[in-house]
Specification:
There is one protein chain. The protein is 0% helix and 50% strand. The protein is built from no helices and eleven strands. Strands 2, 4, 5, 6, 9, 10 and 11 form a seven-stranded mixed β-sheet that branches. Strands 1-3-8-7 form a four-stranded antiparallel β-sheet, with no helix packed on it.
């Protein structure tokens, strides 16, 4: 079982990035999917969640209106479109999966390895 996150990089404030998270060894169609981030020297913070049917999404207030979570169950892939990026979005971004819904951060079943996003001018 593996979650492989990618798409991170270094962009200027106001820029955009699209993160992807490809699952192997299990089908994400049965799992709630999550994005979590960890800024340097800080604790992990929940970013966004999406239900199995791609019909319900949740966002942290800090990213609401700028980030969009989505999934393609056929491709076994989770996405995070990040627009209007700010320096405070700089973090290691993790994808995660769990059969249960957690309101924000939780002890998810599976975690990806993280992809680094750096926002700097």
């Amino acid at each position: 079982v593996q979650l492989q996150a990618s798409g991170g990089g270094s962009v200027q404030p106001g820029g955009s990035l699209r993160l992807s998270c490809v699952a192997s060894g299990f089908r994400i169609s049965s799992y709630w999917m999550y994005w979590v981030r960890q800024a340097p020297g800080k604790a992990q913070r929940w970013v966004s969640s999406i239900n199995t049917g791609n019909t319900t999404t949740y966002y942290a207030d800090s990213v609401k209106g700028r980030f969009t979570i989505s999934r393609d169950n056929a491709k076994n892939t989770l996405y995070l479109q990040m627009n209007s990026l700010k320096p405070e979005d700089t973090a290691l971004y993790y994808c995660a999966a769990d059969r249960q819904f957690y309101d924000a951060w939780g002890p998810y079943d599976y975690w990806g390895q993280g992809t680094l996003v750096t926002i700097s001018s």
